Amino acid sequence: MALKTDDLRVYYQTLKGDVKALDGASFTLEDGEIMGLAGESGCGKSTLAKSLILLKPPMKYVEGRVRLDGEELPIWDDEKMNSFRYKNVSIIPQYAMNAMNPTRKIGKMVKELLKSRGISPGEKRDELEHRLDLVDLTRDVLSMYPIELSGGMKQRMVMVISSLLDPSLLMADEITSALDVSTQKAVSEMLVEFRDKDFIKSLIFITHDISILYQIADSITVMYAGKLVERAPTEEITGRPLHPYTKLLISSLPKIGAKYTEEKLEGIPGKPPELLEPPEGCRFKNRCPKKEEECDEEPPFREVSPGHKVACWKVKKDVS
Amino acid sequence: MEPPQSKEKNEFFYFALRNNKLVIGLIVVFFFLVFAIIGPFLTEHDLNERAGPRNQPPSAEYWFGTTTFGQDVFTQFVYGLRAAFIVGLVGGGLATIVGMMVGFFAGYHGGMVDELLNMLTNTVITIPKLAVLLVIAAYLTVRGVIHESIVIGLWSWPWAARAVRSQTFSLKSRNFIDMARMTGMSSMKIIWTEIAPNMMSYLFMTFVLQFGGAVLAAATLDFIGLGPTEGISLGLMMQHSFNWSAIQLGIWWWFVPPGAALALLVGAMYLMNVGLDEVFNPKLRER
Predict the structure, then answer these.
(1) Residues of A in contact with B179 (CB under 8 A)
(2) Considering its fold, how many domains does chain B have in total?
(3) Does B111 contact A at CB distance below 8 Å?
(4) A95, A59, A51: which is closest to A75 by C-alpha?
(5) Is residue A66 within 8 Å of residue A98, measured between CB atoms?
(6) Nearest to residue A203, comparing CAs of A248, A158, A166, A161?
(7) What is the tens place of the pLDDT at every residue in A242-296?
(8) Is B46 part of any domain?
């Protein structure tokens, strides 16, 4: 397996106390897997991605282990992590619009990145050009300033830079949010192609837009209020969601061909809990239609059928 | 991979040369600079020597006339102009550099470093600059132009530091800073190669403003008698002329040249600043 995290906890330090943005994430990611990470804003998706590559204050490592390709990833140690970054783990940041320094030409930036990794830029020249071709960028972009590129072009350029050193794990953090729908599709498909061509071994694709995940993800993990609530292969989770939150999340998507003139599209009533002092037990209980007494105790994240994990007390009863 | 010619530079000069404010400011400053550099070679008199008859109006022999003591005003003027440029460069430069350093470190590191540096900045801001300059100048028994410049520079940086700090804060949160951090770049290198270039225009403008401010501050000090004890400056010339009642006696050639030069030089600096702002900021450009 490519990535294995074990009870990873990362909090944000604030004056009022710790915000428990990522509170015990355990999952494994297979080689070649594209994992979609979904959930609403503030549920800890980005925190999970950032903590795996650049854990900087006010983020605070609390506990948990991460193994990548059988090797321990020292995410709590900024210095030691340095040798893993870009080479083993890499990220496409949330806002590609400012992922490149506006005062530096793109080619120069790439050169400096390669030098910092101890690779001579000449060595990677052909590969770089090959990948630019793959994402439909001309080679001139290397002698341009970022401002001369459109939003979609910048996004693709950052994709090339982030994956240039063939990282084992690539994380794409909400990279499609700022793009229009057709560009979204093109960008996501390029990432799949990167995986198919073995540039990257596995990919964590973070989004709040589940419909993109239908198209590209092998598996989907749903997060809620800092915890993983369900993880299953894409067909399984979309066809047979088990956790009440996942069910509501999927049912609140518009159906293709359906017209919502008569009835209103349902949402999920209520809002996520405060993560400064999250409620005891299941964090979804206050919005959950199936809430019962046992939900005051924390549900374990366990496997209910092969490859399908859920954190809900009610599920086992439903299944068995 | 090198491009033919940097488009950005061409664009900068395109707009710079078409901005009247900047061009006029530059011409005035350049004029005085040339004057200050070659002026001293055009006179055979010494600063304080008795060069001729007293109170002579400007003439072919004494271009700017002479003082009550028979000193040549032109000689004093060109040396005074040199002093003004030295004060501007050293004082303004020092203020800009200290302000930049404090601002960058406070803004980039945040937390405790920011807390301390901010406290220092605010302390220096609240102490009235002129009062401090008065006290310090009064205690230094031997004062040269350089001493004066350093004192001025060390007390003029806080506003620059504040502005640089807030800019650094906003730049720091951009993704490219994280991308640079991931390459293992040191904080110093990130500040110089990633953050500073994004505010080059601002830093340059700060220097221009600080230059003008330092020249003015020096003139103020000189005029109230706390200027250099040796040498000459434009402010000192004005002080001497005032002390010896040049206005009442109608010796206008004694105080008009230094006063006009100060007003023009500082005015040109401010004009340049406005012009530069228009050149760097596309929103202010005239179409």
Answers:
(1) 93, 99-100
(2) 1
(3) yes
(4) A51
(5) no
(6) A166
(7) 999 998 888 888 777 777 676 677 778 888 888 888 888 888 888 888 888 888 8
(8) no
Question: What does residue A166 show for φ and ψ, rounded to 5 degrees?
Answer: 50, 60
Residues of chain B contacting A142 with CB distance shorter than 8 Å: 1
Mean pLDDT throughout B241-261?
85
Q: Which residue among A98, A116, A142 places its CB closest to the CB of B185?
A: A116
Give the max Cα distance, chain B: 74
Write the CB contacts of B31 (distance below 8 Å, at least 6 apart in sequence): none
User: Nearest CA to B204 among B152, B269, B263?
Assistant: B269
Kindly state whether residue B48 falls inside one of the protein's structural domains: no
Verdict on whether the full-model pTM lies above 0.80: no
Question: Is the residue at B8 inside a domain?
Answer: no
Angle between the N-to-C axes of helices B145-154 and B73-87, in degrees from 0 to 180, rounded to the nearest 10 = 30
Question: A159 in contact with B at a CB cutoff of 8 Å?
Answer: no
* Cβ-based contacts of A57 with chain B (< 8 Å): 111
Selecting from A93, A102, A104 the residue whose C-beta is nearest the C-beta of B178 gives A93
Mutate to test the interface with A, among B109, B176, B185 (most CBs of A within 10 A): B176
When scoring A103, A154, A171, A177 by the number of chain B Cβ atoms within 10 A, the one with the most, hence best to mutate, is A103
Query: How many CB atoms within 10 Å of residue A136?
Result: 11
pLDDT band for position A320 (cuts 50, 70, 90): very low
Compute chain B's Rg from CA coordinates.
22
State which residue of chain A sits closest to B198, comparing Cα positions.
A103
Q: Does B278 touch chain A (CB under 8 A)?
A: no
Q: A54 CA to chain B: closest CA distance, Å? A: 7
User: Under a CB-based contact definition with an 8 Å cutoff, are residues A195 and A34 in contact?
Assistant: yes
Name the residue facing B184 among A82, A99, A145 (closest C-beta): A82
Dihedral angle over CA of B115, B117, B120, B124, nearest 10: -120
Q: Do B1 and A85 touch (CB under 8 A)?
A: no
* CATH value at residue B138: 1.10.3720.10
Written as one letter, the residue type at A135 is V
* CB distance A20 to A278 below 8 Å: yes
Confirm if A310 and A242 have CB atoms less than 8 A apart. yes
Provide, as residue numbers in chain B, all residues whose Cβ is less than 8 Å from the Cβ of A101.
176, 180, 194, 197-198
Residue-wise pLDDT tens digits, B130-186: 787 778 777 877 778 888 888 889 888 998 999 999 999 999 888 889 888 888 888
Q: Which one of B175, B189, B194 would you mutate to disrupt binding with A, by most A Cβ within 10 Å of its Cβ?
A: B175
Structural domain containing residue B173: 20-39+72-284
Is any Cβ of chain B less than 8 angstroms from the Cβ of A98? Answer: yes
Q: How far is it, in rounded angstroms, from Cα A230 to Cα A309? A: 6
DSSP label of B63:
T
- Domain A3-88+207-255+263-319: CATH superfamily is P-loop containing nucleotide triphosphate hydrolases (3.40.50.300)
Q: For chains A and B, count residue pairs whose Cβ atoms are closer than 8 Å.
A: 53
Sign of CA dihedral A225, A226, A227, A231: positive
Residue with tokens 């100048």: B137
- Amino acid sitting at position B31: F
Domain assignment present for residue B263? The answer is: yes
Chain A nearest-CA residue for B176: A99
